[in-house]
Specification:
It is built from five helices and five strands. It is an alpha/beta fold. Strand 4, helix 4 and strand 5 form a beta-alpha-beta unit. Helix 2 packs parallel to helix 3. The relative contact order is 0.12.
């Protein structure tokens, strides 16, 4: 029986600012190899792993990672079904699908299900680290943009209220003349 792992057992301690990643693949050897690769970058920390979609949902709910890496060919509910579930429950969660299927249909179905990106196995080690970094940077920029948009909208609301108050005062002044 496969068990969900909710902590990184890597001897290397992750930086406190490291982005948290969960790996979902039904092949433990692949999960461990990917964990070692990702852990070689101080900006990333594998905080959990799972071998099935139900385990993955449990781990993600518990750990609230920044990114989930999902194998398309999971047994039971597929990686696409897991992605749909993850995106329904965590709309802003980044999901990177890994697949050995090189037909474009799989990439399209994955992206339509809500995956943020799609990467073919076998992949170059540098490529997967760059993809992870790019996805996390994209998320950071989206958050920054959302914060700036909210600040701008607040400033517009405040200034609009001030202008309405000034207009009202001006109208009262004019009506007394």
């Amino acid at each position: 029986m496969k068990r969900a792992t909710s902590t990184n057992k890597s001897p290397k301690a992750a930086a406190p600012s490291a982005k948290r990643i969960v790996i979902v693949d039904d092949h433990p050897l692949f999960r461990h190899g990917l964990t070692d690769l990702i852990s070689s970058n101080n900006d990333f920390a594998v905080c959990g792993e799972a071998g099935t979609a139900p385990e993955a949902l449990t781990v993600v709910r518990k750990l609230k990672p920044d990114l989930v890496i999902v194998d398309l060919g999971l047994k039971g509910p597929s990686g696409i079904e897991l992605t749909k579930s993850l995106r329904a429950e965590f709309p802003k969660l980044l999901v990177l699908i890994l697949s050995m299927h090189d037909e474009p249909t799989y990439a399209v179905r994955s992206l339509r299900a809500g995956a943020t990106d799609f990467l073919l196995k076998p992949f170059d080690q540098i490529e997967v680290l760059l993809r992870i970094g790019n996805l996390l940077e994209m998320r950071r920029l989206h958050i920054q943009l959302d914060n700036q948009r909210a600040a701008f909208e607040d400033a517009v609301r405040t200034r609009t209220a001030e202008l309405r108050e000034a207009q009202s005062a001006l109208e009262r002044t004019i009506s007394f003349d």
